[in-house]
């Protein structure tokens, strides 16, 4: 049976926790103050309901169900299960904005979806991860509780700190955000460079072709679920496109620090998250191109969607 080589990076979980804290601090610094009191004003209720149901209920729930039913117990400890869980419970990311603009989708819905994901992710991502780890790996309850508390602290505190700094010292927000973004980029580059040493010897169970097939099939199912939900809610075409794009893009800036925090020596978990992130960007680009070329529609100006 294939084994997952150790990654020669971040042996100290506090380093990964600091990496994660930087990502959430940057999120808190960029969250618009006007979005905090009432996100409901950013998008229609049906679209918000559809987006939240796909991002935080259907995709994580179906992924967890597939892991429990389809993945044999001996394969759950090889990093694949954790990688799949992280992909499913880290929705959002502002990368979908560029694709939505190109595809002439509803920019306001995509932007609001990213903001909602930032707020809910601080609570729901640790909750889904703890539930997934309990269902797939069945760890001792003290260890599971410790992991859940660590995730909550690593997400809630920096996000709240960023919001407080933005309110307390608004003049310094932009400068501090640039500094934090630079640190994140440097940390991510260092992690990727060092991870290449461990990934070079990785032999996933069933080979790379099977892992790539799993990546593609999972994402196709996510897009189909999002399209079905959008049509069932009778959304307009730009809103349907925005919902599908927002549901299909992963927040890699959050998923990568989480995998380094939870499994710093598991190359398969890291490879799974990285492959999903690259694939989702490629798929979103191709989908946007197809919509732009074959089913054009008038864009909704971003200024009309903002409060």
Fold and architecture overview:
The protein is mainly alpha-helical. The protein has one domain (13-295): Na+/H+ antiporter like fold, CATH 1.20.1530.20. Helix content is 74%, strand content 0%. The protein has 12 helices and no strands. The protein has helices spanning 13-30, 45-70, 80-88, 95-103, 107-136, 141-168, 173-199, 208-232, 237-248, 252-262, 267-294, 302-305. Helix 1 runs antiparallel to helix 10 (252-262) and helix 2 packs antiparallel against helix 3. The longest helix has 30 residues, at 107-136.
Write a concise keyword list for the protein shown above:
307 residues, mainly alpha, Na+/H+ antiporter like fold, globular, disordered N terminus, disordered C terminus, membrane, Bilac:Na_transpt, Na+/solute_symporter_sf, transmembrane, transmembrane helix
What's the gist of this structure?
Helices cover 74% and strands 0% of the residues.
The helix/strand class is mainly alpha
Counting H and I runs of at least 4 residues, what is the number of helices? 12
CA-CA gap between termini:
55 Å
Label the CATH architecture: Up-down Bundle
CATH class membership: Mainly Alpha
Unreliable stretches: 1-11, 35-44, 301-307
- Biggest sheet descriptor: none
Kindly state the number of beta strands. 0
Classify the beta-strand content into a percent band: under 5%
Mean pLDDT: 75
Number of domains: 1
């Amino acid at each position: 049976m294939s084994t997952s080589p150790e990654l020669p990076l971040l042996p100290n979980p506090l380093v990964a926790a600091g990496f994660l804290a930087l990502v959430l601090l940057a999120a808190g610094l960029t969250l618009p103050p006007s979005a905090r009191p009432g996100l409901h004003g950013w998008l229609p209720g049906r679209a918000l309901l559809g987006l939240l149901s796909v991002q935080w209920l259907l995709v994580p729930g179906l992924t967890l169900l597939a892991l429990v039913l389809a993945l044999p117990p001996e394969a759950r400890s090889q990093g694949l299960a954790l990688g799949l869980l992280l992909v499913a419970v880290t929705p959002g990311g502002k990368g979908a904005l560029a694709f939505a603009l190109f595809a002439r989708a509803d920019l306001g819905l995509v932007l609001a979806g990213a903001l909602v994901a930032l707020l809910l992710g601080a609570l729901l991502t640790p909750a889904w991860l703890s539930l997934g780890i309990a269902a797939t790996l069945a760890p001792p309850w003290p260890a599971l509780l410790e992991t859940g508390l660590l995730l909550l602290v690593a997400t809630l505190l920096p996000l709240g700190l960023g919001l407080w700094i933005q309110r307390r010292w608004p003049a310094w927000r932009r400068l501090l955000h640039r500094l934090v973004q630079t640190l994140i980029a440097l940390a991510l580059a260092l992690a990727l460079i060092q991870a290449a040493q461990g990934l070079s010897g990785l032999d996933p169970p069933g080979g790379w072709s099977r892992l790539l097939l799993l990546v593609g099939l999972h994402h196709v199912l996510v897009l189909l679920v999002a399209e079905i939900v959008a049509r069932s809610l009778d959304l307009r075409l730009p809103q349907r496109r925005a919902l599908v794009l927002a549901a299909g893009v992963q927040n890699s800036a959050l998923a990568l620090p989480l995998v380094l925090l939870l499994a710093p020596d598991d190359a398969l978990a890291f490879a799974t998250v990285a492959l999903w992130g690259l694939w989702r960007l490629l798929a979103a680009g191709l989908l946007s191109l197809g919509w732009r070329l074959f089913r054009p529609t008038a864009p909704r100006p971003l200024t009309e969607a903002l409060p």
